[in-house]
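request received
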Amino acid sequence: MKKTLLFIDKLSTWVGQAFAWAIVALTLLISYEVFSRYVLSDPHSWTFDVMIMLYGTLFMMAGAYTLAKNGHVRGDVLYGFFPPRVQAGLDLTLYLVFFVPGVIALAYAGYAFALDSWRIMEHSSTTADGPPLYPFKTIIPLAGALIFLQGLVEIARCVICLKLGNWPSREADVEEVDVDKLKQMVHVKDEDIAALDKLVVAQEQAGGKA
Amino acid sequence: MKRGVWFGLSIMVLIVLATVVLLPPPAQMSGGHIGLLMLSLVVVAIMLGFPTAFTLMGMGMIFAWLAYRSQNPDLAVQQTLDLMVQRTYGVMANDVLISIPLFVFMGYLVERANLIEKLFKSLHLAMARVPGSLAVATLVTCAIFATATGIVGAVVTLMGLLALPAMLRAGYDVKLAAGVITAGGCLGILIPPSVMLIVYGATAGVSVVQLYAGAFFPGIMLACLYIAYVMIVAKLKPGLAPPLPMAERVVPLPPLAQSLDGGHGRNALLGLVGALKGRDRAGTRSVLGQLAIALLPTLAFAAVMSLTWHLATKPVIEESTAGLVEMGTDLNAAADEPKDAGGVQEPSSDLQEPPGTDKAAAGDLQEPPGTVKEVVPAAPELKAAVPAVPAAPVADAERRAMPLWLWIMLGVSGAALLAFYAILNFSRLEIFKMLLASFFPLVVLIIAVLGTIVFGLATPTEAAAIGSLGGFVLAAAYLLAARPREYVRGVLKQWATPWALFGVTVVWFVLHKLEVVTPEVPQWLGTLSMAAIAVWCVMAVFQARLGQTLKESVFLTAKTSAMVCWLFVGSSIFSAAFALLGGQQLIEQWVLSMDLTPIQFMILSQAIIFLLGWPLEWTEIIVIFMPIFIPLLPHFNIDPLFFGLLVALNLQTAFLSPPVAMAAFYLKGVSPPHVTLNQIFLGMLPFMGIQIIAIVLLYMFPQIGLWLPQTLYK
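response:
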């Protein structure tokens, strides 16, 4: 059981990170098109559709990865102040009430949606001979299924937390604000900050007297 | 900590109570009332801390099903499923949201280029004489860096590590220092190119281009108000922000400059010119290098002025048949003309240009012989970008007289240039070099991205992609600079060729667009330079050890984009359900029945958004509540663009309002233990006040925001 959960966790991360590279492709594709269109006067009609597909695929497939790293935005007013067990209880309830039905519905509806598209071998209608759309539409059920699986892992995390009283750890990943890394980047050490504390204390004392 | 819990709980209780009191008993509830119930439930659910995207998705689904069921129970499930997948696909194929990952990617690359340390240092040296110099430098650094990256948390943390110690050591008040850092770090979400404006544009259906043009001046205004406040405080109460001690202002000079300076602040330009004589070759070369750097502003001035002159005095092209007859005389007149315009720096280069834009007749004759061969075959197959190619255009090839504003511009910038050289001593030259290495690249990147968008040269998506590439180049350059000197030198030699090729192409293209050079960039050159840059990108990843940085930026971009875009998926399902239930109509009736004046409505809506900024984040406020506000705007004759600018300014305060201000917690995370959250909050208060002043100013003088978009897009 535990192995399966860990496997799903890794799978979401791996898939998300693999599709994340679409941003590089997107950057290069658009830069190429800009150069080609403006400097060489040679525009390509297919780039618009491909751009959209790269972007849509990127964020849909990264959804489960983001969930696995606890990266989806959540209201932090109260949540942060709750003890872990309360957090887990709330999360578990809301996963069952909102997440599970919502994501299953999305994946199921997406499956029918993509199936229709495959049936007629749908092509994009932005231009006369647009690229095929059915692989792109298939992303919806795929991303839905992946995020559902990841949701099961999160539910399991909640259950573990309810049992043990603290959250099971997540695998480390790059973070937007990684304080240690930023400290290293600008060559600031903890001792420097500690030394600075004296100045603050001195200021407080001076302020108290005045 | 306890306070936070009570604060949050009391808001929740208030919302629940308000819902119970305001809504009719369940028996009399209409669809609209259920919609309102849903809205209050979602705020409560978000505050419980569950990932908002899925709260919205789940709740939207349940209520959409309720709405459909009340119409036709048999079809309800199918219709709900269709709605969900259609809405999701709509977000996936959204051509506005596509620029979000690109701008985010650019931000992470620039952040990781690690130039903030240099930026801050050079700015605070450059501003040493300004009152409250460190605080002003912090604000400027924040504004620029936050604009380029748009990541509030990282900017506040970095400045907390760099500027806070510097300010505390210089004897600044803790509260003031904290306020400056937190307020400055949040500027990035307002000053374009910001992700917030894209999200607003996508939700409200307002053009992102216009939003960017509109938010530019309010953003600058806010930054200037902050700076003015700090300077006034520093003047009135020097105890809070003492001037920098002399020892801190000294710029260490490199050996060459030291020997030339002789310790008494000689003028750098004269010193360098004088030093050219009587040196060995190596000495002369390094002096020449310094001289070249010192002369860069002159070069920029000459280039800008001569191009402006060219555009401003370009002959007016009229459709006239007489043109062909008079062509010969006009050519002579055109050749005489530059002598009259003697004030311009490089008249000689203008002599070579063909009069007018006539490609076929004059262009080939006067081009240097080398390029003619390529131009002739290229010309027919490329459709010329300049429309005026056929015979008529040379009708009035005489250059127009120089307009007055050009004289003024010439005079003012010329005087500024002279003043610059008059005060340029060797330590200022050092500062100038530091700025050149940190400040200018960022500013150029921002202006290039923003300028192309605002002036309609490129779509936001295109500009964002080019910006990302620019971020990559910055990161490559700065990471390379951190390597050993010998290695850097070797690598730079390899980089020179692709960049020279690319530079030639771009300069040629720009000159062609400005109608200085007639032939288009030849196909082979364009393709070659594109290939060269592609090769360079691959080379740079290995040579500057960009792999790790790139990987991290890519993963972070994926997570952030997924966060924002999944939120959009959830909210578009949710707002569809809200509209289906008729909640929108109910609110419209209710607001209209209150019979508000536009001003009252504006104050009410901004106050609601301000209050929502406490428990919710800006993303949630925009995607959930803007769809409710926007349809009300036409009733009060309010421009959604203007409303968006006010909202953007307003949501700035959400970052600074205690007790949930994110910025404060980021700063607390890196500040010395004795700096308390209370001190940080107190420090932020005056800046919140300034934000409110800014909102009032923008409301009283809408032209601050609307002038640029109205001038550009009418």
